[in-house]
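Re: the 558-residue chain
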Amino acid sequence: MDRRTWAQDVLRCHLCETPNPPMYCDICLIHLCKACVGEHLSDESLEHRVVAFKNRKFSPECSKHSKKLCELYCELCGIPICVQCISSGEHLGHKQVEILKTLETKKEVLQRDLLELERSIHPKYQDIASNIPVQKANLNENSKILTTALDKHGEDLHKEIDIAIQKLKSDMNEMESKHLAVLDKQEHEIKCSISEIEQRIADLKKLLNSNDISLLSAYKSKNAEFRRLPPKLTFSLPHFTPQKINKEQIYQQIGSLSALSIKTEEHGYTLDSPGAESSPPNKPLFDEPLIIADINTEYGESNTLRSVSCLGDDDVWTFGGDNMMRLYNLHSKLVKSIQAKSGKIPEDVAVTQSGELVYTDPDDRTVNIVKNTQIQTVIRIQGWFPLFICVTSSGDLLVVMIRDDEIQAKVVRYSGYTEKQTIQYDDKKQPLYSSDNYTKYISENKNLDICVADNKAGAVVVVNKVGKFRFTYTGQPSTTKGSFNPVGITTDSQSQILTTDSYNHRIHILDQDGQFLHYINNCHLQFPYGICVNSKDNLFVAEPTTGKVKKIQYIKSL
């Protein structure tokens, strides 16, 4: 029997065609009845793994090592792995879990999504859709009332006003058509969404009955998208205003229809994800951001200020063209100063979650941490210069470095001061970052994306937490200013990305997907360089030649 037609019949034993065989060979990918298991295993030229049909594909064959079964799942890489994968060292330091546990976890996610779609999201869409026929009925009733009023008024007028009456009717019909078109469009979109949700429900049910780890791993939830309910349309229905008949001014006396007004209004809420805390709503941006404070430092023309890193909400670490790192408060008071251990100029600074200062020293190829007043070298690098650094939400260090010959650049993740991950190439094996010694400040976003402001490339380069390329941002095309010149970069509590455009004296604000939102260009910024954001989403901007750190409020409080 042709194996391609089995799904149209019933499952049959590969050897004897007995229907509904209870066994399955995970290696050969064939169905077996109990009577034929022994015969199948007798073929010693191949490996076999016969399991109960319900347990099939728990251990898929390794995609890299032929005939090797994957008993584990690498959470960082998102793939099943076998023993040979582990021994190769490719997944060294990655978190690995049993594949059966991963399968169960994936199915729990599917089950939660299915329940949410069936019990919450789908009924809500149906409720919204059911209100549209009511709006249509109100529209029709209002149109009938208007028509009656117009007809009655028209009977009282002479023939010379017929054209004017007809014009008003025409206007009314046009508005009704527009009104109806908007309702039809929304009804169509909602029905399409309902169809998509129902299809999603069906697909999830199929996935829940599948044990194929590849299909389950490929699943991407769209529930977050569905939670954003369709906008609510509020219509201001037209009405007719009759006037006293005056033949000399008949067209002015007839009256007029109010203009069609269609207001799109969001429902004001998004369905909460079940079992999870709801995220705070996004706070709007100021059209004109405000300077809250100016911090005057000892930097300036002869010793330019380069970067800042927040310590708490009101203090900032700074460094510039000498070997000192200085801590200032909002009142421009120098709180503390630290000299680099090597006596050379640091390249970048960051602050750990416990408030300790971390800095890179490319001259002696080290990453150092300041504990109280003691400086400890925690990372020493061979063949590469460590340049720019940030601390992640998990406490890891992300370090941008360049090779000795300056022809390669990469980002390295250190966990517990041990190298854990290298990010250097995209899926096409092309370099992600420019190979030069220009600035490449780095920041981790709230969604765990890794954002680098690559100055030589004139781009913000963003990859996800496993190093997979997401997007680049190269500035706004429609501008009368010069080309995009990114230097400093930071992110805020709303996963917005902020980057300085130094030569154009402004800051770009992007959403987490690289879409431009707003400029900060009204605060008399002079060649803004390094930036950081505190826990209250206040922005600190370093100005190299003025030596000022400007504290700016760019997000409105709710």
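The helical segments are 34-41, 83-87, 99-155, 162-208, 213-218, 223-227, 250-254.
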